[in-house]
Amino acid sequence: MTSPRKHHYLPEWYLSRWKRAWGSEEVIWEFGRVGPERLLHSRYRHPAATGYAIDLYTIPDAPPSQAARIETEFLQVIDDRGAKAVSMAERNEIASVQDKGALVQFLLSMLHRSPDRIAYLEGRLADDLSSNPLFEGQQSSYFRAAALDVFTDLVQSQVMIDRMMQLSAFVITLHQSAHDLLTSDNPLMISNGMAHRDAFVMLPIDPRKILILAENVDIPKHMAGHDGKTLAKAINDAVVVQAKKLVFGADRRQLRFIDNRLSRPNHHLARAIDPIMGLVKWKI
After folding, report:
1. Which of 110, 103, 77 is nearest to 89 (CA)?
2. CB 69 within 8 A of CB 7
3. Whole-angstrom distance between the N-terminal and C-terminal Cα of the chain?
């Protein structure tokens, strides 16, 4: 059996939540900058045809039967269990420890699985180890494989999992007057620090809903207390400003909003991005 080469850093089921009818198809809209002028393009895409990179998690120099195991045996399991857990949170169902763990690990995977994050880990390892005589002469494939090992360790970090398991899940549905939520290739939002009681993790899960993990119930109450337009703008601001290359929406109505924020280093929120994690530093 041929191993898959299209590795989705945004699961197809997740992007499918933004699908809307376009002619005879159900599609999402993809936004990104192209060409020397870096003009914003928009095009409709099937969720399976975007949010992936070829061989992103393929382990260099591994036997063919093992080369794609991070995609097939690790992330696909996390994604399948995560899809079920997100749906349970939407329905406000009481989750078992296993289902809560599935939700936590899916969210944790979304923090680290993008092409830019993998490239960052690879670059850091190469920079830190290449001057060490023990690693002299190692090829780039060595550092890529090591970066993928670090990636899987981060997604399974027991420290982070234990902390996130202490948080409760909430879903906020936007008022109908609010703009639709966007998502991107870097959509997870985290509080500035996870050790304090006001820590939270947040992810848009469709054009009208936000999933929040929080210990302090006042955090989601505070967010839900804003009018829908204010909350949607705050979420979309962060999701677009911290995006690396691509933003996704249910339609093209927010094209100007995206154009003013995507890959704009002078935007005021861009100065609030953590240089290590690449996420906006939230303060409540």
Report:
1. 103
2. no
3. 50
Structure tokens at 103: 């939700």
Which whole-number Å values give the CA distances from 221 to 148, 170, 208, in the listed order? 38, 10, 17
**Residue 7 domain-assigned?**
no
137 is a domain residue = no
Asked if the structure places residue 180 within a domain, the reply is: yes
In angstroms, the CA 35 to CA 33 distance is 7
How many structural domains are present in the chain?
Answer: 1
Structural domain of residue 183, as residue ranges? 162-244+262-272
Q: What is the pLDDT of residues 156-215, one digit of tens each?
A: 999 999 999 999 999 999 988 899 999 999 999 999 889 899 999 999 999 999 999 999
| pTM as predicted | 0.92
Question: Which of 29, 58, 23 has the alpha carbon at shortest distance from 207?
Answer: 29
CA distance 29 to 49: 11
Within 18-139, strands assigned E span 20-22, 25-34, 39-45, 52-54
Structure tokens at 271: 């100065």
Per-residue pLDDT tens digits for 111-149: 999 999 999 999 999 988 878 888 877 888 999 999 999
